[in-house]
From TrEMBL:
InterPro entries: Fructo-/Ketosamine-3-kinase, Kinase-like_dom_sf. Pfam families: Fructosamin_kin. Belongs to the fructosamine kinase family. It comes from the Bacteria. One of its GO terms (molecular function) is kinase activity. This is Fructosamine kinase family protein.
């Protein structure tokens, strides 16, 4: 793979004067490139970068705020620099709710899924379309992990999958979901909440509501503004569990207790 300097020259016609690694990036690192004329952009690299670019494009097409894709090639992605993120305040959370509205207006005749799979390092994110949301979540977000979990945790996840139709709806309204919407994947610039680093697909928008409760504690006004379907609080542990299982496989057993708490909340 080419260096970031070589890729910048080939794809956007400029060589950076400075490369600043950005904080975070447990899955894929990013850097801010500064050019002699003062222009800046963000560079990311990875084997699935073209798929990420297509997801960002779909989010932008919906009207939701996401950085513009400037160029892709040779496993490099160059993005509009939307600047650093400020600490979240009440206004930030309300802006996040507003940012999700355009996604809720995106439907799909194929219903639940995405045209291609995704992944985080060695953890595959299967996205095969299904006419049933229950089947999609069971196969693509729960059972796909059980062979990589310890036997007891795998048993509990499989038991939940078997009863999933009693917990989540089979035909919820279809939305474009970000899919990995924790605080680190939102850039708050004081005016706009920008959506970055998606794991997008067509699904139930409660997925994004749940993701925001994994590492953050949003105020009630955010959920009021989203106007979710009654009973949404009882379903959040189902959607959070997927993120805990991914984290267990990526980072180890330190996330097991969180997965077990949500399984217990669901009665498994």
């Amino acid at each position: 793979m080419t260096t970031v300097d070589e890729a910048a020259k080939a794809l956007i016609g400029l060589r950076p004067a400075a490369v600043e690694p950005l904080a975070g990036g447990d899955i894929s690192g990013a850097s801010r490139l500064r050019f002699p004329d003062g222009f800046t952009c963000i560079a990311k690299s990875g084997p699935l970068i073209e798929r990420e670019a297509r997801m960002l494009g779909a989010i932008r097409k919906s009207g939701a705020p996401a950085p513009e894709v400037m160029a892709t090639g040779d496993n490099w992605l160059f993005l509009q620099d939307i600047g650093p993120s400020f600490p979240f305040d009440e206004a930030a959370w309300l802006a996040i709710a507003d940012a999700l509205v355009p996604l809720s207006r995106v439907s799909s005749d194929r219903l639940y899924g995405w045209a291609e799979d995704y992944g985080f390092h060695h953890v595959k994110v299967p996205n095969a379309y299904s006419a049933s949301w229950v089947d999609f979540w069971r196969e693509n977000r729960l059972l796909c992990h059980v062979f990589d979990l310890d036997p007891e945790l795998a048993r509990r996840v499989a038991a939940l999958a078997d009863k999933l139709g009693d917990i989540i709806p089979d035909q919820p309204p279809v939305s474009l979901v970000h899919g990995d919407l924790w605080g680190g994947n939102i850039v708050w610039d004081g005016v706009t909440a920008w959506l970055i680093d998606p794991c997008a697909y067509h699904g139930d928008r409660e997925v994004d509501a749940a993701a925001m409760t994994v590492f953050d504690s949003p105020p009630e006004r955010l959920f009021d503004r989203l106007g979710l379907t009654p009973g949404w609080r009882k379903r959040l542990p189902v959607y959070r569990l997927w993120m805990w299982l991914v984290h267990i496989r990526l980072f180890g057993p330190s996330y097991r207790a969180a997965a077990e708490r949500d399984l217990k909340r669901l009665g498994f």
